[in-house]
Design brief:
This protein is an alpha+beta fold. The protein has 4 domains: 177 residues, Hypothetical protein af1432, CATH 1.10.3210.10; 140 residues, Beta Polymerase, domain 2 (2-Layer Sandwich), CATH 3.30.460; 89 residues, Ubiquitin-like (UB roll); 92 residues, Alpha-Beta Plaits (2-Layer Sandwich). A 5-stranded mixed beta sheet has the order 1-2-5-4-3. Strands 12-13-11-14 form a 4-stranded antiparallel beta sheet, with helices on one face. It has a 3-stranded antiparallel beta sheet with strand order 9-8-10. The longest helix is centred in the middle third of the chain and has 35 residues. It starts with a helix and ends with a strand. Bound molecules: manganese (II) ion. The site of manganese (II) ion has 4 residues, from loops.
Length: 566
């Protein structure tokens, strides 16, 4: 396979992207002190290793330019076309989401990655980016390492795993686990290590026995290896089993790579004939692949010396898919002419009937799969009924499509919703009624004592926002008309003059009292005199007296009476 440097030599377009990235990042350094360009090059090399297309390699080279250099998306679009610009924009957007360790936000963040990526290539480039950042994380200050490692462990590694990229997932986990979970890591080292080495020795002893067993029964196999469970996945398993090591059976897994599907089942039969299987632990992922496309046979048996071991049996192709997941699918399909687009996004590169993952994504809309977790992961993208937006700090806020900044504000916090004044969407001042899109960064400006606008009800999309707005309105009405207020009527005799009525209403308005009704008629006792009746409501009698006094002082007011009114 070609290296990136060879590709730069051979492809003028990749060369152009490389030169542009080199120029844009000129003078910038990584935390390690290396020239910045080493990073996009490493990312592009990974993307190349995953057999992704030239556009992805170009986007990988340019992935940090828009965020960190004067280079613009428009320029990239002009030089490399719409698609490359779309990929770079996507990777940039994904970088805006930040996980800070809040359990309930993990799922939103994973969804954000897929939904906002919009195209699986965006997600893969982002994963390659994170891989290189993790490989070089030791160059960062310790306090910065923690957050990034935790985000990698909870979001990126989990995502890689769901995409079936187990090799990537386990490398990401292995680097991030000791940093993100220091105490747990130490506990594992102290508790597990001896047993772990013991099991590796046992597995090495078993290996030739199985080889011989399969060979004697005429099963063609290419490879048998032992897989010692990594500390981090063991830790996760232990959590599930109350830290009881005896209950974790696949501490060591024996993996047999055989030549055909038939041989998979035959090998399983021979193993069960020789060693008693544990009931309930036989899994046929060939007949029933996992949602991410994983295929293999698993069983757990009492092996030699009555020791429990897990055995996995699969073909070479299944093995490649298991290690490389979606990127393996990509490699198979790369040179085939296929036009199977599944909605926009994930599978524009694959022939659907051959690929489990892709197939299930396609079926998702009609037949929700049993694997609930995977369903929720991709639903937001494929059913397009949800959008994932971001706070300026990178927290993911999930909303129904068509939701507005007001909905967003209420979902961040009810008080932010209630006092929301104006907003910026992706840095631009926008109306509060703007329909938001996935990936939008929304900043809400609030003002103390601000109340929800009456018109908000006409454009909000979430019931959460609607309920809060209604509640505030109801409270307002209660203050104005409810039992807590007493109604009064002022009866004034005034000598009429220009502006008198205005003076009266000004006094009332300045005391922030609402007029409920008013009435004016000629008073026939004196010429040019009028009788005014003004109805209002206040919370206590003192306030009505204060109002009466203020009005009495106005020029032309002859007498003031204040009566309770019902
Ligand atoms: Mn980067």
């Amino acid at each position: 396979m070609k290296t990136l440097l060879e590709l730069i030599k051979d492809s003028p377009l990749v060369k152009k992207a490389y030169d542009m990235a080199l120029l844009a990042h000129k003078g910038q350094k990584r935390a390690s002190g290396e020239d910045y360009i080493t990073h996009p090059m490493a990312v592009a090399q990974t993307v190349l290793d995953w057999h992704m297309d030239e556009m992805s390699i170009i986007a990988a080279l340019l992935h940090d330019t828009v965020e960190d250099t004067p280079l613009t998306l428009d320029k990239i679009k002009k030089e490399f076309g719409e698609k490359v610009a779309f990929l770079v924009a996507g990777v940039t957007k994904l970088g805006h989401a930040k996980y800070r360790g809040e359990e309930r936000e993990v799922e939103n963040m994973r969804k954000f990655m897929l939904a906002v990526g919009g195209d699986i290539r965006v997600v893969l480039i982002k994963l390659a980016d994170r891989l290189h950042n993790m490989r070089t994380i030791k160059a960062l200050k310790p306090e910065k390492q923690g957050r990034i490692a935790l985000e990698t462990l909870e979001v990126y590694a989990a995502l890689a795993e769901r995409l079936g990229m187990y090799d990537l997932a386990s490398e990401l986990e292995e680097i991030s686990f000791p940093i993100a979970k220091k105490k747990e890591y130490q506990w594992m080292i102290d508790t597990i290590k001896d047993k772990y080495e013991e099991r590796v020795a046992y597995a090495n002893h078993i290996k030739p026995i199985i080889s011989k067993l399969l060979a004697n029964n005429g099963i063609k196999f290419s490879k048998i290896d032992i897989r010692a469970k990594k500390l981090v996945s063991l830790y996760r398993k232990l959590l599930k089993y109350e830290m009881n090591l005896e209950r974790v059976y696949d501490l060591i897994a024996i993996r047999c790579i055989v030549n055909s599907v038939e041989d998979c089942y035959a090998a399983l039969g021979i193993i069960h004939k020789n060693w008693l299987p544990l009931p309930g632990r036989i899994k046929d992922y060939i007949a029933f692949p996992k949602a991410n496309g994983y295929r293999s046979l698993h069983t757990t048996v009492f092996g030699p010396e009555e020791k429990v071991m897990e055995v996995q049996i699969r073909t070479a192709q299944m093995h490649n898919e298991a290690e490389n997941g979606i990127s393996a699918h990509w490699a198979y399909q790369k040179n085939k002419d296929t036009k199977n687009y599944i909605r926009r996004g994930i599978a524009s590169f694959a022939k659907a009937d051959e690929l489990q993952l892709i197939k299930q994504l396609k079926d998702l809309k009609e037949n929700p799969p049993n694997n609930e977790e995977f369903a929720t992961l991709v639903k937001s993208d494929f059913l397009e009924d949800r959008i994932l937006t971001l706070t300026p700090k990178g927290r993911v806020i999930e909303l129904p499509s068509g939701a507005t900044p007001v909905d967003f504000a209420y979902h961040v916090h009810s008080e932010i919703g209630n006092t929301c004044m104006s907003c910026r969407v992706n840095g631009l001042v926008s109306p509060l009624s703007t329909p938001l899109k996935s990936g939008d960064v929304v900043e809400i400006m609030t003002q103390k004592n601000k109340r929800p606008g009456d018109e908000w009800l006409s454009f909000v999309k979430t019931s959460l926002a609607r309920e809060h707005i209604r509640k505030v309105q109801k409270d307002k009405n209660k203050v104005l008309y409810g039992e807590t207020l007493k109604k009064y009527e002022l009866r004034l005799i005034v000598e009429d003059r220009v502006g008198l009525l205005n003076d009266v209403t000004n006094v009332i308005a300045r005391m922030k009292i609402n007029i409920n009704h008013h009435e004016s008629r000629e008073d026939h006792t004196f010429a040019n005199h009028k009788m005014l009746k003004i109805g209002f409501a206040v919370s206590n009698y003192e306030k009505s007296k204060e109002l009466s006094e203020k009005i009495r002082k106005l020029k032309g007011v002859k007498s003031v009476e204040c009566h309770p009114y019902s």
